[in-house]
Amino acid sequence: MAHIKEIFIRLINSGRRPVGSWSLGRRRETEYAIFSKKIASVPLVTAIHQGLRPAALIGLHPHRLVLIFLFSLLLWSCSDPNEDKIDDFYTVEDIALPEGLTTEVGGMDFLPDGRLAAVFHRGEVMIYDPQTEEWALFAEGLHDPLGVQALSNDELLIMQRPELTRVSDSNSDGIADTYMTVTDDYGMSGNYHEFAFGPEPDGEGGYFFALNCASSGAGIWDELRGEFNPNGRPGRMYSTVPYRGWVLRLTKDGKLEPWASGFRSPDGVGMDLEGNLFVTDNQGDWLGTSKLYHVEKGKHYGQVSSLVWREDWDEKYGVDPHELPVETLDSLRTKAAVLFPHNLMSNSPTQPVVIPENVEFGPFAGQLLVGEMDYPRIMRIMLEEVQGQMQGACVSFLDSTGLSIGNHRMKFATDGSLWVGSSAYVWVGDKGIQRIKYNGGTPMDILHMNVKSNGFDLTFTRPVNKEFAANPENYKFQRYYYKYHREYGSPRMDEQPVAVKNVQISEDGIKVSLELDEMVTGYVYDLQIDSLVSQKGANLDNNRIFYTLNQLPQSTDKIAATN
């Protein structure tokens, strides 16, 4: 009835315009190609652009208005059942939590029997049974746990601030009775910002975890754990004790390996289906915007304080890294695979999690999802290897749709549902746990964005309406980069539009190839897509996508910017 009322009101008001098109409301904004149709001897002319918008029909007799009104209902009833917004394909549910619990989630994992293990900010470890919807306390007293892996129904591996701990229930009474240190072989200065993230299985029986830098918002204690290095002390974020700002690997035989340096606040550690390690990092000093890194052994990723813990640092440099020229520091780093434009896509990215191939969760299997703290958003990542380097695009997956902010930890259940835990600490965020269920069907979305030497290929989940897709004006590109420097964050630098020269559409309507006026490495290519719908009229809701262009498939003479 709401749609009928809306159409009727628009009909009444339509006399203000001499010509135009019908609108069926935001939910049913379907493109109908109807030209010079005659309804009761009156020409009905539609302008096809983002839906059937208000038409002006001058001098119509009331009975003709009724006929047109009935015709609009017919159009509405014949519209594509899959034209709904992407949130119609996914349902977000709140999970009830125990009263009195501070429900800021640090980590989640599913036990082999299907129950959920969750660790919370104030040290509780709780077990949830989805069948009975009941919670039980498994352990408590941990120090700021920020990750958990289930080893069995009775044993968990938990990353707390001072150590990686194995927590076990030896007599199967449902309550942990053994807390065993797995490793604590890294430094602590007592600074409030020295978080520890992980653990993430390495695929070989070991685990990766990441250590946050300390913050200049507070000092260090007189009593430290680990060696003190004064060259790691300067800076907004600093690393005075071993391996702050590093990703570490614990091998299956218990050896701790420094894996990679250059991280500021690496709140998310995850693997893709091919065994590639990915880590998110948050905007700040030496990070112009938040990023997703493809992390490889021995490489450095940009935040400079952690450099002092490289084995060859004293021999090669022996100084506070901040004293070196930016050009030297820039030459030491590996660039991020994906940049998340600040205030546009993400201000504080969290855990990357891969969509499994053996569950039903839409057409995106194998791609990464990344949580976001500041917005009610989960992002989707499209990656490719170009010239031996991982790079790709980010786009919204779910926005709002009942989703909380503070989306901190995510885990897929065996039934294909995605569980999301929220947190806040003293920053922007929320509390609680939500479950996202896939309802079936195929949303109209961008499946892949692949770079070419002269532009990009966009692959869609469904065939596009070729008439709209062929219009170059529907693709609005701009490019910019973020400055690599000591200051906190960076504005978008050298921001300018990039023209689309040519559009080609595959015969099946799935792929749209865009030729751009120029392609310059070192920039984010920010694409806003307007007036594009599927062949059957479904709207493209997630219509802004950001591609991080580090490499081109073929060589280019353009000078690369520093992002």
User: How many helical stretches?
Assistant: 5
Total strands: 36
Output the CATH class name of the domain at 446-549: Mainly Beta
Low-confidence residue ranges: 1-58, 75-82, 556-560
**Main β-sheet: number of strands, strand sense, barrel status?**
8 strands, antiparallel
Proportion of residues in helical segments = under 10%
CATH level-two architecture of the domain at 446-549: Sandwich
- CATH fold call of the domain at 446-549: Immunoglobulin-like
Strand arrangement across the biggest beta sheet: 22-23-24-25-36-35-31-32
- Tell me, what's the shape? globular
Radius of gyration: 27 Å
Structural class: mainly beta
- How far apart, in Å, are the first and last alpha carbons? 52 Å
Explain the overall architecture.
There is one protein chain. The protein is mainly beta and 563 residues long. Among the domains are: 2-79, no CATH class; 446-549, Immunoglobulin-like. The protein contains five helices and 36 strands. A hairpin with a 2-residue loop joins strand 1 and strand 2 (42-44). The two termini are 52 Å apart. Residues 1-58, 75-82 and 556-560 have low confidence and may be disordered.
